[in-house]
Design brief:
alpha/beta; Rossmann fold
């Protein structure tokens, strides 16, 4: 099948590469000429395990190509453009509208437009109107349909999520579109049927509801961790206790120093704004967002409480990206911590395995960029684990201690055993544990 994908960001590039891997012929379009040139040369703009190999293999095989020029979409076109946060918290659909209008201006026959972007409920109908208006201005008429097919990709595990999905949500009432989408996703349904059919409005809502639920679980555990600290309970044991309940499950019950990334913060705000436009208030999500904003300040508060005066202290940060497995710095807790520590007069030494280049473009404060975790520890009064990269799991702490000036350790992800760390001589602090 011939597939056009508009947008070569995280969702568009993963979608294109995975469809090409299944034998489809995919063209990825983006107006960013530098990005397209880099992709044509095999340079991947994001870090995602397995993606570079997938792109290169299918490009070499002739199934995956990249362009900046709009042309008639043919059988099916996926819309995977950014929908960033507007000033009022709502989703900004300007990129989507521009892409749809440019596409409609070159349509030469029937087509199906599939929306992969995360968009407010009702956007499929809006896209339908944009196409109709453009075709009317051109004085032409083609049959077309707009399908909602939201993505559920975890950064750091996106290839696996696409190839072996929990579910494939498809929102359409059109029988022809449904048949084409069934054919398109057939290779991903060989073991069992993963497609869940619904109307477009419900599909759009499902995307927001999923992210809102996951964010709620995280904020709930983070809020509960504060109470555990006060009472002397251990949030890790509590997590095991409630996670073993089949009605609850153990996923996304890990407390930490706040969630970030391109999805949860933006989608929570967009869903709240959608509710507001309908005269409703989502008080649970208001609390989820508020808890997360405070949680991002928690590590600074712990460091401040420990040292009192931070001016002149040297603090090492291990990990900068919002989560392991990605170089994504959007809404990362590290950015909040760096700003607060810098204002307090601390000297900062930073290291992340993959996100250093992106971090350097965002961090304006004077810091020392280090080549590894050991170099970051040199002369440090405290180490702060912000992102739980796997390479931090088994550290030679004997060597780390030799580098440090003072042995304070703040574990923002509860990665280490408190008793072991204290037995090794560290003044160790974590989240929600004694």
């Amino acid at each position: 099948m011939q597939i056009l994908i508009i947008g070569t960001g995280y969702v568009g590039l993963v979608t294109g590469a995975c469809f090409a891997e299944m034998g489809h012929h995919v063209t990825c379009l983006d107006i960013d000429e530098a990005k397209i040139k880099a992709l044509q040369e095999g340079v991947i703009p994001i870090f995602e395990p397995g993606l570079e190999e997938l792109v290169k293999r299918n490009s070499t095989a002739g199934r995956l190509s990249f362009t900046t020029k709009y042309s008639s979409p043919g059988e099916v076109c996926f819309l995977a453009v950014p929908t960033p946060e507007s000033a009022d918290g709502s989703a900004n659909l300007s990129y989507l509208k521009t892409a749809v209008e440019q596409l409609a201006s070159v349509m030469t026959g029937p087509s199906i437009l599939v929306n992969k972007s995360t968009v407010p409920v009702g956007t499929a109908a809006q896209v339908t109107r944009w196409v109709a208006d453009c075709l009317e201005r051109r004085g032409v008429s083609f049959s077309y349909d707009v399908v909602s097919n939201p993505e559920f990709l975890k950064e750091g595990d996106a290839i696996s999520d696409f190839m072996k999905p929990d579910r494939i949500i498809i929102g359409t009432d059109n029988e022809h579109s449904a048949e084409l989408m069934r054919e398109l996703y057939a290779p991903f349904n060989l073991n069992h049927e993963r497609i869940i059919w619904m109307d477009a409005l419900s599909a759009e809502m499902t995307k927001y509801a999923a992210n809102a639920m996951l964010a709620t679980r995280i904020s709930f555990m983070n809020e509960l961790s504060a109470l555990c600290e006060k009472l002397g309970a251990d949030i890790t044991e509590v997590r095991k206790g409630i996670g073993s309940d089949r009605r609850i499950g153990s996923n996304f019950l890990y407390p930490g120093c706040g969630y970030g990334g391109s999805c949860f913060p933006k989608d929570i705000k967009a869903l709240k704004q959608t509710a507001k436009s309908q005269g409703l208030s989502l008080s649970i999500l208001e609390a989820v967002d508020a808890v997360n904003q405070e949680q991002k300040k928690l590590l600074f508060k712990k460091i401040k409480a420990y040292f009192g005066e931070l001016k002149g202290k040297t603090i090492a940060l291990w990990g900068l990206s919002f989560k392991p497995g990605t170089d994504d710095m959007r809404e990362a807790t590290s950015l909040v911590l760096i700003e607060e520590l810098s204002k307090a007069g601390a000297h900062l030494r930073l290291f992340d395995p993959v996100s250093m280049d992106k971090a350097k473009k965002l961090i304006e404060q004077p810091v020392v960029w280090c080549q590894d975790e050991l170099e970051a520890s040199k002369g440090a009064d405290a180490i702060v684990l912000v992102t739980e990269w796997k390479q931090f799991r088994f550290i030679d702490f004997a060597e780390v201690k030799k580098q440090m000036n003072h042995l304070a350790f703040f574990d923002g992800r509860n990665q280490y055993n408190p008793e072991t760390m204290r037995a090794d001589g560290f003044y160790y602090y974590s989240i929600g544990r004694r």
